[in-house]
Amino acid sequence: MTSDHPKHEGAPVSARLGIWAFLATELLLFGGLFTVYAVYRVVYPDLFQQEHLKLNRLLGTLNTILLLTSSLTMAVGIAAIRQGRQQALKIALTLTLLLSAGFLGIKYLEWSEDFSHGLYPESNLFFGLYFMMTGLHGLHVVLGMLVMGWLLVCARQGRFSAQYSTPVEVTGLYWHFVDLVWIYLFPLLYLVG
Amino acid sequence: MSEEKVPSPGLRRGYLKEKGFRSWAFTHDHKRIGIMYLIATHLFFLIGGLLAVLLRLKLLTPGPALMSSHAYNVLFTMHGAMMIFLFIIPAIPSSLGNFFIPLLIGARDVAFPRLNLYSLWLFLAGIVVTVASLLNPIDTGWTFYTPYSAKSATAVTALSLGLFLVGMSSILTGLNFIVTIHTMRAHGMTWYRMPLFIWGMYATSVIQVLATPVIGMTFILLVAERIFGVGFFDPAKGGDPLLFQHFFWFYSHPVVYVMILPAMGIISEIIPTFSRKPIFGYKAIAYSALAIAFIGFLVWGHHMFVSGMSTAAAVIFSFLTFFVAVPTGIKIFNWIATLYRGSISLDSPMIWALTFIFLFIIGGLTGLFLGALATDVHVTDTYFLVAHFHYTMMGGTVMGLFAGLHYWFPKMTGRMLNERWAFHAWWLIVAGFNVTFFPMFILGMQGMPRRYAEYPAKYQPLNIVATVGSWVLALGILIMFVNFIRALKSGPPAPDNPWHGLTLEWTVPSPPPVENFEEIPTVTDWPYSYGEKEEPGNDE
User: Fold this and answer.
1) How far away is chain A from the Cα of B179, in angstroms, using its nearest Cα?
2) B171 at the A interface (CB within 8 A)?
3) Looking at the complex, does the CB of residue B431 fall below 8 Å from at least one CB of chain A?
4) Which residue would you say has higher pLDDT here, B311 or B532?
5) Could you say which of B184, B210, B231 has the minimum Cβ distance to residue A128?
6) Contact status of A17 with chain B (Cβ, < 8 Å)
């Protein structure tokens, strides 16, 4: 476990390359759904226009703000630990977790509202896409929260420092990706023009 | 290399020294993980092969016999699904790739050893779910085409989830290899000093990372279709079954290059080693692997020429299909040029490698028949396709795998195989393979459709030939595996470098110790200077 191991010399580089490759995989995974969206949007433009009006735009906008802000707090956390400020990292991670929990809470409200209006995945192609896309995205938010919870535990044990911040940075990249997917989902689903 | 020439008895066990369940289930050693993949995948090779023998037995007679039509549908689905997803996709990358990538680039392990273990667990979990689906085995064919797969009462959901897990394992393994090859190479090993097996595995890993998520999404959508009633592929709900086919083949065509590129990598190692000549056209072979990986993403439409596709799209896909054959041809010409005026020795790895070249030429060229639009219409869904596919996959990938197994068996186990047994297994397999599958080209040209339990009596003579061939093939494979097991128990100890190879794995003991290298080597040259340097490996 000493530094003459090449695998430890290159560890942060490996981790960063690894997460980028992972994000490429994720991009192709979501890419499948975006392809379905593109195909049926072209085939049924009227259906998409008409059905998207049933979504709650206010809650969608609120969620966009929450998630964008959580990306900011995550970035602040990374900047903090690069300077070795552990307390700031803990606060930033906690805020990020709270904001993403808020996102999921609102998502839950939205879905309940949809169900109460009789809107289900099998209702039509638009809602099939809506539930699949936001569902898969929501799952990624949950996974991200689990990892950030673990980061918070590690941060409390003081395991991160200016010299060792790779797990935080890698999680940050993942989190920005999740955020980015939402930035595409929001206009495609809520703002069909 | 090392001065201590008298290893203690324990040292010769190398990485295999530790015993017990935990030493395997929780190991981070890429070699042990590779061995576990090797055993798991080959188990399914034998099961899938047994199913194939049953299928051929059924087809001995044109009428109903031996099993119901439903049982026949189930058997060919299981044969295809197991062979493709549990054997041939992971067989070389996850087993030999895991074992030899770190050794060939001079590293102690892969970049993420723990992730490597998780990948193995995911693979095993996927196998468990897949096997559980056998309680109600599916009958859709391994291609899962909708709308039938969305409605079939069989366990499509379970199998999809099982294969999703297998796919995740494949993605994470590919990711691990990409990072390993980028960051773990020994000092002095520049990209152009890498063994060609590494180039092949690199191209493979890129496909695994970029194509597998698409089949993952396809399985998710199929399950959503079955459970939630989402209608993406259901015409009754405005969906389109063709979209499923596009998704399916967007993965399943590139994945045939996941199967073949590692095999081509193995051949690129064996040909120069047993010709005692530097590989001809190193860069051409290396870049053609990347070219195959890249163009391979753009040809999926050739599986759908008769499914409904605009003429313009069909012409483009047809052109690209011809185009992807070019880098393959480049590789084959370079291998042959390497053989030219070499000092060839026909040890077992070499006869398998030469068999690969011979059979893959047949498989590859018949692929062009299928890529040509008019010909394809004539032979679509006939035995011609079955023959083509088996010539590329079994004649190509599996022969490459066998070549690799015979080449690296001494390194992996520390024991030598019996060459005479290997030779007898080889001629039985090659003869059996050709007798089984060559008649299928003719049957296909005559119009015999695939996937039917019964067929018109006029096709019977060639079917009898094929069935008899399958017995010879099975016998050959049996002998080969007996040879493996015999050698494991009582084979003579292997020297460190039995084939006088120049790649780094031959510089360490057989079997290699934990963490591979006492000291990370410094590389000063490419590994193909055969005949230009003093012969290495005369260590016994």
Assistant:
1) 6
2) yes
3) no
4) B311
5) B231
6) yes
Q: At what angle do helices B419-445 and B348-371 cross, to 10 degrees?
A: 10
Please determine, for residue B17, whether its predicted confidence score (pLDDT) is greater than 90.
Answer: no
Nearest CA distance, A13 vs chain B (angstrom): 8
Residue A7 touches partner B, C-beta closer than 8 Å: yes
Give the tens place of pLDDT for each residue, B398-415: 999 999 999 999 999 999
- Determine contact, residues B261/B289, Cβ cutoff 8 Å: yes
Which residue segment(s) compose the domain that B465 sits in?
30-507
Q: Residue B83 above 60 pLDDT?
A: yes
**Rounded distance between C-alpha atoms, residue B482 and residue B150, angstroms:** 42
C-alpha distances out from residue B469 to B200, B352, B439, B465, Å: 32, 19, 10, 6
Query: Cα distance from A2 to chain B (closest Cα, Å)?
Result: 14
Q: Is B226 on the interface with A (CB under 8 A)?
A: no
Asked if residues B416 and B498 have their Cβ atoms less than 8 Å apart, the reply is: yes
CATH at B37 = 1.20.210.10
A136 touches chain B (CB under 8 A): yes
Give the three-state DSSP class for B177: helix
Residue with tokens 């008769």: B306
pTM of the predicted protein model: 0.93
Q: Which residue of A has its CA nearest to B517?
A: A5
Residue A125: which of B213, B214, B231 has the nearest Cβ?
A: B231
User: Angle B364-B368-B371 (CA atoms, 0-180°, nearest 5)?
Assistant: 130
Per-residue pLDDT, A9: 52
B43 found inside a domain: yes
Is B12 a domain residue? no
Contact B182 A17 (CB under 8 A): yes
Q: Pick one of 1.20.120.80, 3.40.50.2300, 3.30.70.1110, 2.130.10.10 as the CATH number of A6-190.
A: 1.20.120.80
Position B435 pLDDT exceeds 50: yes
Give me the residue from A17, A32, A132 closest to B218, CB to CB.
Answer: A32
Query: Which residue from B minimizes the CA distance to A34?
Result: B217
Q: What is the pLDDT of residues B42-73, one digit of tens each?
A: 999 999 999 999 999 999 999 888 899 999 99
Instruction: Round to whole Å and give the CA distance between B201 and B194.
Output: 11
State the Cα–Cα distance between residues B88 and B366, nearest whole angstrom: 20
Residue B513, in any domain of the structure: no
Residue given tokens 């030469």 in the structure block: B354
The predicted structure's pLDDT at residue B11: 45
B230 contacts in A (CB within 8 Å)?
A: 121-122, 128, 131-132
B1 within some domain: no
B23-31 own/partner pairs: CB under 8 Å, 24+ apart: B26/B117, B27/B117, B28/B109, B28/B113, B28/B114, B28/B116, B28/B117, B29/B109, B29/B113, B29/B514, B30/B98, B30/B99, B30/B101, B30/B102, B30/B109, B30/B110, B30/B113, B30/B116, B31/B98, B31/B99, B31/B412, B31/B511, B31/B512, B31/B516
Q: Does B178 touch chain A (CB under 8 A)?
A: yes
| ipTM of the complex, rounded to two decimals | 0.91
Q: Measured between alpha carbons, how far is B353 from B339 in angstroms, rounded to an integer? A: 11
CB A131 within 8 A of CB A122: no
Of B109, B214, B231, the CB nearest to A32: B214
Domain count, chain B: 1
Inform me whether the C-beta atom of residue B213 falls under 8 Å from chain A C-beta atoms.
Answer: yes
Q: Domain locations in chain A?
A: 6-190
Q: Contact B216/B249 with Cβ under 8 angstroms?
A: no
Chain B interface includes A5 (CB < 8 A): yes
- Strand partners of residue B134: none
Task: With beta carbons less than 8 A apart as the criterion, state whether B258 and B207 touch.
Answer: yes
Is residue A115 less than 8 Å (CB to CB) from chain B? Answer: no
- Counting one residue from chain A and one from chain B, the pairs whose CB atoms sit within 8 A come to 105
Task: Please give the structure tokens belonging to residue A63.
Answer: 């969620």
